[in-house]
């Protein structure tokens, strides 16, 4: 072994210490997973070398035969994994092995619960697979040299997983990384060729480069042990290039875990080969769980890009729109050049064609999941529904298709679960109903009990209840579905079309004429607080409501803009009153204009509260209400 220099002892980042504690206390229920994680990392290192060597062939250092080797020593009780990939410099070793993957550390810590079973689900979402070595090892040595650096700049990293690690410089003739696991007492089963072969076949058969293990050919008695021979134990062919009929579900699932750094099986996948004008293979997955950075639209995302089976880019974001950023997978094209760059990806018409086809494929996959496995789709919607709602604004061509995948709460279902599709809604629509009615609000309790729904309950008309913060913005882009237009029941002058009889319409006109005097008095009393006062056709039980002008921002959108510090255009609500309500009849008969004004403002403020709005002058509301209560109690 070469003499080590520049030796120093460093402490792990706090997050790593906590993670190592979980690992060492058997966080994984299946210990053999450590080999899958280390092989996946080695595979990534080889992919990175292939890509960098396109521009700098000298990085191959005359050795283009790329592979991973797994060996063991029963006497020393060790397992060794070696790759001739890109390797690491001293700084990279400290950065990669001393901290949890650059991003997400705060989220990782925040989500740790102390419950090992629950915490185990977090592993893999932060690129922490290397530390799984400590499940079976009480000491880990890493020897590495980055391709292109001189042999004297090799590095040795060593740790017992107890809060600190040592780093030293040493000579390393070959580029790449060698990891030596010193197995714990009781883990001797892994220092065995048959056991290691089975693990490789089980978890890493899909890896698209040779994984070699020593040939076990014992020497005859009295003969010298033959020179070490190696044999490939995996298929070493890219899974996505193989025919679908030859691939088992378990292989698809293991491949997903490899590329997605996930520990759960995906909800669905789609494997496709395109031939003709364009030629490419794609393998797309829908994860079962949302990553922590799902709502950070600028976070890295995208598919793994290969060109003619050569790895090019880890997160190629040009192949799917942003609202499908949760999709994982691989695309392998024969039509792109090997030296493809991000700039070319953004401009190439071939990419646009592939993006269009891959987007349609994902939407088809989700449609199929919704139709054939509704419970699985429910799980998908819970995790990714709000992101999918970004679709109609971003993808005009697929607006109708995306709308069909959306799920909403409605007055038809109790409990507020978002389980109603637009197709379900239209299938239950009343005869003559040519609109899809909806109401937005801050919470399910608020919209479910909104006075705006009173006439709909009376007539048995279903209304969609939208409470996600994105919903009002979504509906500004979603104008119609299946030829039926959307109508916000809190906006403008409600027109139920054929759902109102001619008698109803005539009666409404007569009452409006009869109450013209009350309308004028209310306008004078409420003054600048309202844009209009009118008789309501929406109410059956409440005395008054506030409606929004056709072109005005809704309350939900106003609150979002105000919270983000943006200037909100001035708008005033429409005050609608229920002429048959006892309070309105009492108001109509009030002789004192002062009492009439106080009473009008109380009704206005109550209507604002029922709509989920805050009062502009709460003290004035309390003063008027107290004054009224005193008068009533005298």
UniProtKB/TrEMBL annotation:
It comes from the Bacteria. The keyword Transcription does not apply. Residues 30-187 form the Histidine kinase/HSP90-like ATPase domain. Residues 1-342 are annotated as: A. ATP binds at residues 37, 41, 83, 88, 102-104, 125-130, 177, 342. It is found in: Cytoplasm. Homodimer. HAMAP family: HSP90. This is Chaperone protein HtpG. It comes from Pseudomonas bharatica CSV86.
């Amino acid at each position: 072994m070469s003499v080590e220099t520049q030796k120093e002892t460093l402490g792990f980042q706090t997050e790593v210490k906590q993670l190592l504690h979980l690992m060492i206390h058997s966080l994984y229920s299946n210990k053999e997973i450590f080999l899958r994680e280390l092989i996946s990392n080695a595979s990534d290192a080889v992919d990175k070398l292939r890509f960098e060597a396109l521009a700098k062939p000298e990085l191959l250092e005359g050795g283009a035969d790329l592979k991973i080797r797994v060996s063991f020593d029963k006497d020393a009780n060790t397992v060794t994994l070696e790759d001739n990939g890109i390797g690491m410099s001293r700084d990279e070793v400290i950065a990669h092995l001393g901290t949890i993957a650059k991003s997400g550390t705060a989220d990782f810590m925040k989500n740790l619960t102390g419950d090992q079973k629950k915490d185990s689900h977090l592993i893999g979402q932060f690129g922490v697979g290397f530390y799984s070595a400590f499940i079976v090892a009480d000491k880990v040595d890493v020897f590495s040299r980055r391709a292109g650096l001189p042999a004297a700049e090799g590095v040795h990293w060593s740790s017992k997983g107890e809060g600190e690690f040592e780093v030293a410089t040493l000579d390393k003739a070959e580029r790449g990384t060698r990891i030596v696991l010193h197995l714990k007492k009781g883990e001797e089963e892994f220092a065995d060729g048959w056991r290691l072969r089975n693990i490789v076949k089980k978890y890493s058969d899909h890896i698209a480069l040779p994984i070699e293990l020593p040939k076990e050919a014992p020497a005859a008695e009295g003969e010298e042990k033959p020179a070490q021979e190696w044999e490939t134990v995996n298929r070493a062919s890219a899974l996505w290039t193989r025919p679908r009929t030859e691939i088992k579900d378990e292989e698809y699932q293991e491949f997903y875990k490899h590329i997605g750094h996930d520990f759960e099986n995906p909800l669905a996948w789609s494997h496709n080969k395109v031939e003709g004008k364009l030629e490419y293979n794609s393998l797309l997955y829908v994860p079962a769980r949302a990553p922590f950075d799902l709502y950070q639209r600028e976070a890295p995302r995208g598919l793994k890009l290969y060109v003619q089976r050569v790895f090019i880019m880890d997160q190629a974001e040009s192949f799917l729109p942003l609202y499908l950023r949760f999709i994982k997978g691989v695309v392998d094209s024969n039509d792109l050049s090997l030296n493809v760059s991000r700039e070319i990806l953004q401009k190439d018409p071939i990419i646009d064609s592939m993006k269009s086809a891959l987007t349609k494929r994902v939407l088809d996959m989700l449609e199929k999941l919704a139709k054939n496995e509704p419970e699985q789709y429910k799980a998908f919607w819970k995790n990714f529904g709000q992101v999918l709602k970004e679709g109609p604004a971003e993808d005009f061509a697929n607006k109708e298709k995306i709308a069909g995948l959306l799920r909403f709460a409605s007055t038809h279902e109790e409990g507020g679960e978002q389980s109603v599709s637009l197709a379900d809604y239209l299938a239950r629509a009343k005869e003559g109903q040519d609109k899809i009615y909806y109401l937005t609000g801050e919470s399910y309790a608020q919209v479910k009990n909104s006075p705006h729904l009173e006439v709909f309950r009376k007539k048995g008309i279903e209304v969609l209840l939208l409470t996600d913060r994105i919903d009002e913005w979504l509906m500004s882009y979603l104008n119609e579905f299946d030829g039926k237009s959307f109508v916000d029941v809190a906006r403008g002058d409600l027109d139920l079309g054929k759902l109102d009889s001619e008698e109803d319409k005539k009666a409404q006109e007569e009452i409006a004429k009869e109450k013209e005097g009350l309308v004028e008095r209310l306008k004078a009393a409420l003054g600048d607080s309202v844009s209009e006062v009118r008789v309501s056709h929406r109410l059956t039980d409440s005395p008054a409501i506030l409606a929004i002008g056709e072109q005005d921002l809704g309350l939900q959108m106003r609150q979002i803009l105000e919270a983000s510090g943006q200037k909100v255009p001035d708008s005033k609500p429409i005050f609608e009153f229920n002429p048959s309500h006892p309070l309105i009849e009492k108001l109509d008969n009030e002789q004192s204009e002062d009492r009439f004004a106080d009473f009008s403002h109380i009704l206005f403020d109550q209507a604002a509260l029922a709509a989920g709005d805050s009062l502009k002058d709460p003290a004035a509301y309390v003063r008027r209400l107290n004054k009224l209560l005193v008068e009533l109690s005298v």
